[in-house]
Amino acid sequence: MSDTNDVNAQSEVLDVRTIPPAQRHPMIFQRFAALPVGGAFTLVNDHDPKPLYYQLNFEHSGQLGWDYLEQGPQVWRVRISRTAPTSNKRQIPLHPVARDAE
What we know:
About 30% of the residues lie in helices and about 25% in strands. It contains 3 helices and 4 strands, in the order H-E-H-E-H-E-E.
């Protein structure tokens, strides 16, 4: 049973510092997509992942928990959690459109 606990503890941390930058966001998005409501993982990065926050928040508005655990200067740790179920409707901000043009 301790093996299962060790695996679970390791799977809750996603250290992307050794992953090529182009592969990081897809990997993180995949990990987030697999989270159940209330689930979380800790992201470990070598820089502030603020752009990732904006991207995740846009794609998963109302479903994202984001808590800094450590903020540099060498290592950033962020607890990323799913706070609500996935919505089937993607919310895209609507801009006023001139009706005369239609």
